[in-house]
Amino acid sequence: MSDALFDAVDALLARAGGEDLPPADERARLRTAAQLTRRQVADALGVRPQTVAGWEGGRSEPRSPQREAYAHLLRQLAARHGSSWTPPGAAPAAPAPAPAPAPAPAPAPAPAGARTPVTPRDAGAEAVTAGVDAATAPPTPVASPAAPAPAARPAGGGVPDGRDTAAAPAPTRPQPRAQGRTQGLTPARDQGRTRTRPQEQGQDQDRPREEEGRFPAGPLAVLDADGRRLVAHLADGRTLPVPVAAASLAEVTEWASEAGLGSGRLHRFGKDGDPLVVLTDAAAEYLGLPAAGGGKGGFDPRTGRLPETHRAVRALLRAGWLLTRRGFGPWARVYRTPEGGRRACVQYCVPAWGALSSGGWSVPDGLAAPELARLLGTYASRVLTPRGSTAVTGLELMTALRPPTRPVRTQSGWTSGPVEGSLTHPLDPAPPEAPPEHPLAAGRAEHDVLEEEAWDWHRPVDLLDPGEVGLPYAVGVDINTAFLAATNRLTVGLSEPVHELRPAFDRKVPGCWLVDLSGVASDPRLPNPFTPDGRPPAGPAWYATPTVAYAVELGADVRPLEGWLRHRAGPYLDHWHARLRDAYIAGMDRLGVPRDLADRDPHAFLAAMAALREAGDPVEAAVLAAVKATAKGGIGKLRERPQGAGYRPGLPWPALERPTWRPDIRAAVIATARVNMHRKLLRTAQATGRHPIGVLSDCAVYPAPGPSPLDVLPYRTDGTPVPGALRLGVSPGHVKHEGTRTLEWALELLADGANPARHIKTGTDAVAEGE
After folding, report:
1. CA 19, chain centre distance (Å)
2. What is the CATH number of the domain that holds 39?
3. Is residue 421 left, alpha or beta, with left meaning phi > 0 and alpha meaning psi from -120 to 50?
4. Model confidence at 172, in pLDDT bands (50, 70, 90)?
């Protein structure tokens, strides 16, 4: 019985790990010193590379028979390359007749951070690969002489936040093992970071060092080909050679999954960001990917994907990788079934197939790979690693900041539970909120529709004052990211709508209300705040809560006839607003327009804004444009309509399966933006006596005595802006100069029934909704 007990204990010790194997971080160091990849080790042992990563990350331990073979490999590597770990003596083939002599004392452990130098080599990518899963490895400080600290980088380099692997660790936590995985990288330039305060418990806007150390290569890599091999350009200016063996899409995917690419989660219950690999035209050709419209068997722009019979796709599938239903297209997601709770996923972007030529991206023509990496990396650090169009990324950002579920421990084990304040599951809209294609819209009366849209209004010619007609100029001012500003502190519904008859209006309850606002007085020289065309409503209609609340603010006695109300609510978009607001302000600051410039010197602000078009950094300008498109497109995605020629009205479409398909939230945002602008127009009229002659979404055109916005906007006697009125500035909700033309030009458009706000910028339909 005693022998059986000892055998059981020995088996338990073997499963738990022991002195036959070195510590997890030492396993990775020994493999790297021998210039071996995880795949080579995995193939020799008959396991998957992810399994070896688990052994090196300390998340799992090898079992027989791989354990003995793995221990033998590490013993031999330790003998060749040196190690602070002392391998045990080789066990005899048969039990020894007498106890073996006591082993010699093990040498004293090396001081913290002391490591055997790893020999640099051309395939520096594999040096980065070592220990890629440092999130679960022991946080042992490392000071490798083969991995010098990055040199200082000049300001304005657009470095992603949280990628400064050379910076000092947080004072109360040990420094993560990050530097030992950055050999083969060219020194980075200055990696200055802009800190953002955490928004709430669970929000991780400023990630701790040990989190950042898991992704030493940053969020993404732009692969370019120099004729003989691929080179990865990273977001912070470093380059990372890709192993020569990575000559196919499947091999590049394997490399990318182990190269230390990725980004930390934005919420403690969220997911880490997958690595993004961008393929330049040269890299795509090097990997055998066809150009767009390459004929039979190539990339077809109509289907937006490579056929499954293409050799690159077949090689991916043979290597155990999977594709989503979208297949391999301009934006592709390649993944493996999770093993041991660890995700293995790589995102791809193929600009040759139009990935960055539409969808809100405005990448300058002919941008070199390093600058493209800086552009996308800056966007990733301020917003999120791109996942597709800017609209798609805007929607993904909502989920990243407020994930739907969290782990919950029960008596029977762990399960998923909802995250308070998040959108946790798909909900049907209220019938008035449904777009025309939705099944709930079938048979709906024409007037039984919630129509909360942006303004398109111009003043009738007969309502122009003689004093206005005699002015020489028409000046347009545009509200910065008006829809984004409307999401600040906006309460939205988190539960399904409940139908109620004659409910008492409560501005704290999100939903839509059937109410008659036709009797609410409004200045005809301003657009009516309740309708998209700016004309007074003719009778009862459906309105979102912000519109009805503004009617009450204007003195109306509202008596709703019906309501579709959501009694569980919260500020779901607050953190989304804060992150995009900070990204927008940071971009303007990098372009030479600091946040307080308009208040300090309005003339200098206007001059700086005018100079952006000619002298601004094109990469930073492209990032700023993408941030604005993300805010606008993310709101639009909340009511994504059916796509594709094969859709039949009345049938559901895939977007309805998302918790973030919420047309009621979109309606609340647009309603808030519209009434916010009406408040500013009204306050401006009260302070100056000036009224717009045209409004399109967030752009207003005024008759003016001079060509500058300063000839329109109100200021107090001390030179400060009038509170609540239109105000110059960078912040969302403030205004900038949109354009100036002669008033005669504007009056001609009004006489033809056209809106001058639509053409004030360039003479074309240039005003982007919600910009």
Report:
1. 44
2. 1.10.260.40
3. left
4. very low
Question: Kindly report the CA angle at 583 between 237 and 579, in degrees rounded to 5?
Answer: 120
Residue 109: closest CA among 74, 84, 142: 84
- Whether residue 238 lies inside any domain: the answer is yes
pLDDT in tens, 594-645: 999 999 999 999 999 999 877 789 999 999 999 999 999 999 999 999 987 7
Q: Is the pLDDT of residue 577 over 50?
A: yes
Q: Are 637 and 392 in contact (CB under 8 A)?
A: yes
Last residue of a domain, one of 29, 60, 81: 81
Q: Look at the alpha carbons of 261, 266, 267, 273 in this order and tell me if their dihedral is positive or negative.
A: negative
Question: What string of DSSP letters covers 432-471?
Answer: GGS-TTSGGGTT--TTS-B-----EEE--GGG--HHHHT-
Looking from the CA of 589 toward its CB, the CA atoms found within 13 Å total 15
Specify whether 372 is located in the same domain as 231: yes
Residue 488's pLDDT band (cuts 50, 70, 90): very high
Share of the chain above pLDDT 90, in %: 61
Burial of residue 665, with CB atoms counted within 10 A of its CB: 0-12 exposed, 13-18 middle, 19 or more buried: buried
In a domain, 340, yes or no: yes
Pick from 187-191, 236-240, 273-277, 445-449: least confident: 187-191
Torsion angle of the four alpha carbons 627, 632, 637, 639, in this order, in degrees rounded to the nearest 10: 170
In a domain, residue 474? The reply is: no
Strand partners, 493: 569
Question: In the prediction, which pLDDT does 4 show?
Answer: 54
Residue type, 633: G
Amino acid 54: pLDDT: 74
Residues 72, 220: one domain?
Answer: no
Q: Which residue range is the domain that position 12 belongs to?
A: 2-81
pLDDT tens digits for range 527-555: 999 999 999 999 999 999 999 999 999 99
Closest CA to 524 of 463, 607, 608: 463
Is 769 a member of any domain?
Answer: no
Token output for 427: 């909900």
Exposure class string for 492-505: b at 16+ Cβ within 10 A, else e: bbbeebeebeebeb
Q: Could you tell me which residues come within 8 angstroms of residue 168 by beta carbon, excluding any fewer than 6 positions away?
A: 175
Q: How many CB atoms lie within 10 A of CB 451?
A: 15
The answer, yes or no, to whether residue 766 has pLDDT greater than 50, is no
Give how many domains the chain has, as a whole number: 2
Q: Which amino acid, residue 422?
A: S
Domain final residue, candidates 81, 99, 122: 81
Q: How confident is the model at residue 147 (pLDDT cuts 50, 70, 90)?
A: very low
Asked if 226 and 374 sit in the same domain, the reply is: yes
Residue 124 CB contacts under 8 Å (≥ 6 apart), including other chains = 183, 184, 185, 240, 241
Side chain identity at residue 276, one-letter code:
L
Which pLDDT score, from 0 to 100, does residue 80 have? 85
What are residue 609's phi and psi, to 5 degrees? -65, -40
What is the Cα–Cα distance from 332 to 253, expressed in whole angstroms? 12
415 pairs with which residues across the strands? 408
For residue 358, the Cα-to-chain-centroid distance in whole angstroms is: 17
CA distance 374 to 370: 6
